[in-house]
Every structure is written in structure tokens, then in C-alpha cells.
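sry for the spam today, last one i promise. C-alpha cells for design, 147 residues
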């Protein structure tokens, strides 16, 4: 989960989906991404995010959406990109009866200890590549953890 669901979270979603497909465990995972805000609902990911993913052989048909009450009741994990998202998600989860999701920073899993995945929106292609690399490290480590 990220603020607008057009940069970081769709990259993380696409990376995780590719990892579980490559590991042949995609039937064990329901993968999606969402936004805390409603700013970009229905939009495709940022062109730079799509370009970055394509450079790594990954395609996505994701359309931005806002997180729902049902997400907190359906998903086992809701992983987010920064402390602001974490605060917003925890606040929202407190309003949901039967919240089963563990809400945490995706960066918690980074073997290089980069806790925050910075928003590349106001940056350049290199910033999107940095997000991609962080997502790969974090998603691999998350997937290796016993669930």
C-alpha cells in the first residue's frame, strides 16, 4: 500500500506476483495493491513505473484503487511503503471489525535494512529503479519467511 497506488505499490505487487509465479506458489497467494488515498482510483501506474518493470521483463495490468474495509478482513498481510502509510492503515484498521491483517512496512524485510521505500514520483528513472530493487529484496525476504 502506498499513498496513490501508481508508483511504489504497483511495483511491489508486480514484483511479488512474478516471484510467486517463478516459485510456482502463486496458487497460495492473493496479491494486490491499493492506495491510502482516492486520488488516482482507476488510473494505470505511472509510465516510469511501467517502464522500470518492463526493463525487468515484468508486465502489469494494475489499475489504482483505494484500500477497502474488506481488505483488512481478507488479507493476512498489508505491507506499506512508509510511516505515513503505516499510521493511516493502522488508524483505518481500528475502524474495522474482524481485522485479520498484519500491517507492517515492506522495508521491515529488507536485508539491507532500508526500512522506508521512498516515493519516486517527483524523482527520475533512477529513483524508480531504486524502488524496484528494494521491492525485489523485500519481497524475496518476505516470501522466504515461514507463513
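last one done:
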Amino acid at each position: 500500500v502506498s499513498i496513490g497506488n501508481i508508483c511504489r505499490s504497483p511495483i511491489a505487487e508486480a514484483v511479488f506476483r512474478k516471484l510467486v509465479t517463478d516459485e510456482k506458489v502463486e496458487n497460495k497467494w492473493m496479491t494486490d495493491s491499493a492506495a491510502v488515498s482516492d486520488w488516482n482510483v482507476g488510473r494505470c501506474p505511472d509510465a516510469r513505473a511501467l517502464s522500470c518493470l518492463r526493463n525487468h521483463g515484468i508486465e502489469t495490468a494494475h489499475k489504482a484503487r483505494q484500500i477497502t474495509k474488506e481488505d483488512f478482513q481478507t488479507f493476512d498481510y498489508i505491507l506499506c511503503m512508509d510511516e505515513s502509510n503505516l499510521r493511516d492503515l493502522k488508524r483505518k484498521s481500528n475502524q474495522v471489525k474482524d481485522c485479520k491483517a498484519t500491517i507492517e512496512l515492506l522495508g521491515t524485510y529488507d536485508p539491507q535494512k532500508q526500512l522506508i521505500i521512498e516515493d519516486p514520483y517527483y524523482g527520475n528513472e533512477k529513483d524508480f529503479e531504486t524502488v524496484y530493487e528494494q521491492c525485489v529484496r523485500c519481497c524475496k525476504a518476505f516470501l522466504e519467511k515461514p507463513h
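The chain has one domain: 6-141. ok im logging off now
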